[in-house]
Request: fold
Amino acid sequence: MQELAKAYNPQEHEDAIYALWEKSGFFTPENLPKPPAGGRKPFVIMLPPPNVTGSLHMGHALNAAIQDILIRSKRMRGYDALWVPGTDHAGIATQNVVEKMLKKQGVSRHDLGREKFIEKVWEWKEQYGNTIIGQLKKLGASCDWSRLRFTMDAGYVKAVEAAFRHYYEKGLIYKGKRVVSWCTRCQTSLSDLELEYKDEESKLWHIRYMIPGRERTIADRDYIVVATTRPETLLGDEAVAVHPDDERYKGLVGKSVILPIHQREIPMIADAAIDMAFGTGAVKVTPAHDITDFEISRRHDLPLRQIIDERGKMTAEAGKLFEGAKVLEARERIIAELEAQGLLDKEEAYPHRIAVCYRCGTVIEPIPSEQWFLKMDVLAQKALLAVKEKRITFHPQRWEKIYTDWLENIRDWCISRQIWWGHKIPLDGETDVLDTWFSSALWPFATLGWPKKTPDLEKYYPTQVLSTARDIINLWVARMVYSGIEFMDREPFADVIVHATVLAKDGRRMSKSLGTGVDPMDLIAKYGADATRFGLIWMSLGGQDMKFGEEPIIAGKKFLNKIWNASRFVGGRLGGDISCAFPESPRIVENAAMIESAHAAAKTITESIDAYDFGQALHIAYDFFWHTFCDKYIEWAKTRDDEETKQTLGATLAASLKLLHPFVPFATEALWQHIRKDDWPQQLMIAEWPNIHE
Reply:
């Protein structure tokens, strides 16, 4: 046996080891060695498809490490472990990237036309779209790359068309004019889940709406005061609303007030949606420019007067003084006019959250628009019952509330987008495309060949586990649940792991723009993939968010050297005579204790992995290897030369490499390749997991 180097150098081993794994074909379950008696049970995970525009970030790295731990451990336990990878076409994001590229060349998509522009997107995708796939391989992800999927592949397009037609023929998809969230930069509608919110120091303006026919007296004012954060929408007001239980306005409900500037009478109405504690308790109702106001208008049969257009400019309905002005310009003019007419009661500082486009950051304008919608009431109930009846379980359970709260208060889903890159709505003459999340909602079964009844679909659906981030519980998880029930008559997975968020050291979200983002590829280049995986999983305890620092990764590097040096010692001590089997009836107390500890560690590590407590599993494996095996047993064994001790020493090392492999696969595989005998499994990743009762 060739002597190992004195320290583990990941740069010398990782690429070669990954090439060995890929060449073997063992990432594909059909290529695994002969199954045990009774065959293999499937264990399936679908990789949450990253955007083709994306590169690996710390959240991706943590999530991929979690999934790889599950897949590798199940593969070693005799399962047909299938991890299906893929990428999402990411309609708005990808179109923005390609448009920016073209802009540098002095060309717009309109110059090219739709067909040529789509060709450019495909060219970009072929050149850059698999960047993150290569990065996942660098991390050690053991996905079945032969089953790599893309949401714009021909087969997937057919699945999306089939889903749309199913919903449409069932009467669940309809077209109608409703107020939607509109991005004036991307020139498309967005669903409520595609909005991001940022805090802004704004103002609350208190505006006087005159009451016709009243004499001005000290005791009985001739106006009411309405508070608003958006005075620019005043010109589209169709009512002033108060809560039905608000005693302050009992005598005014059913009467009229005069809309400032335009001087037209609008009704005072009562609606339970009004918050009595906001401002004065009286609010303006602008049906065309607020989604809540739109719902109020439908209950009270109010007209829809659009005063802001798709470009974010004031329309002719706003009046000659304001027509053509941008929204913020119109705000300034309206405030000046209110002051001139003595109708601005007061203004005060007011912290305000504004909605912005999740892709370009432009402030959202709610406007009326003709769009396609998916009815959500029945579908939402199906998804709710799946969790309430425990057919799907969240880990940690607290994330279930985000899921149920959204489904219990859901609106119909605006599924059409006014962009060019994506799945065209499958009706004649329709130029819109479907929301990206419409196609990704089909991921657990469309990737397996649906709507065809393929062998993969029959064998591998439903999957077992989904691991994902909290911010797409409603964007993606809930939509996959009701889609799976609707099209496959079964939930798409049984368990949802919501992994921790990796925060910057100061506890804030990582941000490239603020310089607090950490690139996992830099960590891999510096410390190796195993140490990076170790550090992320080591910090992942109890589902709590983690403040990232390099210390756990450095600790991982030291641990890898401990594994390496212990293996070097055992290999040198035993030469090529290492056994994977423990002595059946050990006579020496220390050996019996070592074997018992190894079995106990295997049991608790397995139980922790099965409970999705990966940090705990790694801590147990670390303590067992470093303290029980190395510090105690190896030190004791250095003075022994009997066969029982040698067999125990070699078998404990082999078992340790197996238990550690899902967490640090490269170094353990490199060591396995160094110490393995001809009758051992040719790769550690297909070696049998240390014996425990399943």
